[in-house]
Amino acid sequence: MEASLPGTAAPPARTAAYGRRGRYLLFAAPALVVTVAVILFPWLFTLYMSLHDWPLVGERSFVGLENYWKLAGDSRFLEAAWHTLYFTALAVILPVIFGILAAVVFHREFPLRGFLSTVFMMPMMATPVAIALVWTMVFHPQLGVLNYLLSLVGLPPQLWVFAPGTVIPSLVLVEVWQWTPLVMLIVLGGLASLPTEPYEAAVIDGASAWQMFRHITWPLVLPFVMVAVVLRGIDALKAFDTIFVITQGGPGTASETINIYLYLQAFAFYNIGYASAVVVVFFVIIAVLSLVLLWARQRTQWTTAT
Amino acid sequence: MRPSYGSGASRLFRRLGFALAVLVIVSPAILFFVWMVSLSLKNELDNSAYPPVLIPSEWAWDNYAAVFEQNPFLLYTWNSVIVSGVSTLVALIVGVPAGYGLAKARAAGIGIVVLIARMTPGLSFLIPLFILFRAIGLAGTLWPLVVIHLVISVPIVVWVMLGFYEGLPGELEEAALIDGATLWQAFVKVALPLSRPGIVVSAILSFIFSWNNFVFGVVLAGRETRTLPVAVYNSLSYEQVSWGPLAASAILVTLPVLVLTLFVQREIVGGLAAWAVKGG
C-alpha cells in the first residue's frame, strides 16, 4: 500500500522508519477510541436490536430475522425506497450540472469574485432548519412568493410541497439551491489544478475552444466531477432536515424517504427493533450505491490516466 | 490580461453576457436571503399581502422581540454554544494529534474510514445512544448531545488537520528529533505552534456543522436542553404560525454561521475544498 517509499532505501533506515510509523499512529489512538465508542458501539448494538422485537417499554424478545422479512413485504417501506431513489437521482444530476456551469464561470477572474462566490456558498453553510422554514413560506400556495413570481412570467400557480405529484421535485429544488455550491467548489478545485501546457500546445495546433474543452478540460476535470457525484449521492440518500421540516414526509406519505420512515418507526412509533432493521438495510443500500459510484469514478481515473 | 478577440463592440457584448451569467448564478442565493430578512421585518398584514411586498410598510422590529418573549431563546442559544463548543474542543484535543500522526505515518486507507463515517446515516447512531442514555439516566442533560456531536466534529478536525500537516514541511521537526526530542515533544513544541491556521479552520468548520445539526437534537433534547435548530422547528409546529417572528428566529439561528462564513471566507473555502474533495 505504501507506494511513496522508494524500494532503494537502506534496510536499517526502513525498519527505524516503521517503528516510528507505529509510534506516530499512537497519536491517533484517542481519536480512534472516541470513534469506536461513538460509531462502532452503536453499529453492533443496532445489529443486535434488529433481531429483536423491542418496544420502548415492555417485554423485548428475540425474533431472529423476522424484522427483515417483515420489511421485505412492507409496502410503505418499499414506497419510501422508491421516493428515496427518485429524490436522489434528481438531487445528484441537477446540482452536478449547475455546479459545473457555476464553476466554469467562477474560474474566470472578475471584480467581486471572492465576495460573490461566498454569497453563492451561503445556502450550503446556513442552518438547514432555518432555510427550510423560509422555503416553507416561499412555497405557500396563496401567500408564497414563488407563485407570485410564476404569475409574473404568466405561468399558472402550483401547489408545490402541498400536492403529492409536485412535492418531491419541489424538495429537490431546495436541495439544488442548497448543494450546488458544494459541486461548484469541488469542480473549481479541479479547474484550478489544470496544467497550462496542453492548452499552449493546442493553441499552436489551432484547436478551437470547444475542441480544447472536449479533449483537454473535460477528461482532466471528470475525476473531480465524479467525486462530486459520489458525495452528492451519499448526502442526497441521507437527506433529512429539509424534508422533515418542510413536509414531514407528507402530504400523506408522498415525500416519505427511507430516512423519514426510519425516524417515524424509531421515535414516533417506538418500534426500536424494526427501526434498527431499517437502519441496517438503509446502510446496505447506501454502501452498495456508493460502491457503484466509486467504481465508476475509478474507471474515469483509469481512462484519463492512459 | 487575457488576449482580446474581435472588435470592441463584440468584447463589450461578451462581457455583458458574462456579467449576466454571474447574476443568474448568484441571484437565487441573494433573493432568498433578502426575502428572509424582509419576512422577518414585516408585520402580519404585510406578510399576508398579495401581491407580496418586499419593503415593509412599517418596520416590525418587535418580531425579534417576540422570539425572545415566546421562547427561552437565550437558554437555547446557550445550549447550542455549549454543545457545539464542547464537542469542537474535545474534537480538537483528540483530532489534532490524530491528524498529525496519520499524516506523518502516511496511513493508507484512512480515507475509507472517513467515507464510511460519511455514509452512515445520523439516525443509526441515534437509536442505540437514545436507548443507552435513557438506561444510564443521562437523558435530559446536555451530555448526550455533546457526545453524539463528536460524530460530526471529530472527523472534520482529523480530516482538515491531516490535509494541513501533509502540506507542512517536516524539516523543523526532523531537526528537533536529531537534537534528541521525542516524537511527542517535536509535535507539541515545533509542529503545534505552526498549526494555528489549520486549527482555526477545522474548529470553525466543526463548530458550524455541529451548530447546524438538527436531527440529533430533535431526538435527544428535552424541553430544557433544546438546541437552537430544534427550538426553531418547535416554534413552527406548535405555536400559532405567524411568519414574522418565525422568520426572525430563523435569521437569529443562522446569523452567527453566515457572519463567520463571511469573515473567514478564504480559509473556509480552502478547508471545505480539502474536506469535500478528499472526503471522496
Order of SSEs of chain B: HHHHHHHHHHHHHH
Largest interface: A-B, 91 and 95 residues
In percent, how much strand structure appears in the residues of chain B? under 5%
Radius of gyration of chain B: 24 Å
Quickly count the domains of chain B: 2
CATH fold-level assignment of the largest domain in chain B: MetI-like fold
Helix content of chain A: over 70%
Cα distance spanning the termini of chain A: 22 Å
What's the architecture of the largest domain in chain B, going by CATH?
A: Orthogonal Bundle
Rg value of chain A: 25 Å
For the sheet with most strands of chain B, the description reads: none
Q: Class by helix and strand content of chain B?
A: mainly alpha
Helix content of chain B: over 70%
Mean residue pLDDT of chain A: 86
Whole-number tally of structural domains of chain A: 1
Structural class of chain A: mainly alpha
How many distinct beta strands of chain B?
Answer: 0
CATH architecture of chain A: Orthogonal Bundle
Would you write up a description of this structure?
The complex is a heterodimer of chains A (306) and B (280). With 306 residues, chain A is an all-alpha fold. Chain A has a single domain (75-305), classed as MetI-like (MetI-like fold, Orthogonal Bundle), CATH 1.10.3720.10. Helix content of chain A is 73%, strand content 1%. Chain A contains 13 helices and two strands, in the order H-H-E-E-H-H-H-H-H-H-H-H-H-H-H. Chain A has helices at 11-26, 29-49, 66-72, 75-106, 113-125, 128-139, 145-152, 167-192, 197-204, 209-237, 241-246, 258-267, 272-305, and strands at residues 52-53, 61-62. A two-stranded antiparallel sheet of chain A has the order 1-2. In chain A, strand 1 (52-53) and strand 2 (61-62) form a beta hairpin. In chain A, helix 4 runs parallel beside helix 8, helix 5 (113-125) crosses helix 8 and helix 8 (167-192) crosses helix 10. Chain A starts with 10 loop residues before the first helix and ends with a helix. The model of chain A is unreliable at 1-12 (pLDDT under 50). By secondary structure, chain B is mainly α. Chain B has two domains: 8-61, no CATH class; 63-278, MetI-like (MetI-like fold). In chain B, 76% of the residues lie in helices and 0% in strands. Chain B contains 14 helices and no strands. Chain B has helices spanning 8-40, 44-47, 62-70, 73-105, 110-119, 122-135, 143-166, 171-178, 183-191, 196-212, 215-220, 228-238, 243-263, 265-278. Chain B is flat. At the A-B interface, helix 1, helix 2, helix 4, helix 5 and helix 6 of A face helix 1, helix 4, helix 5, helix 6 and helix 7 of B.
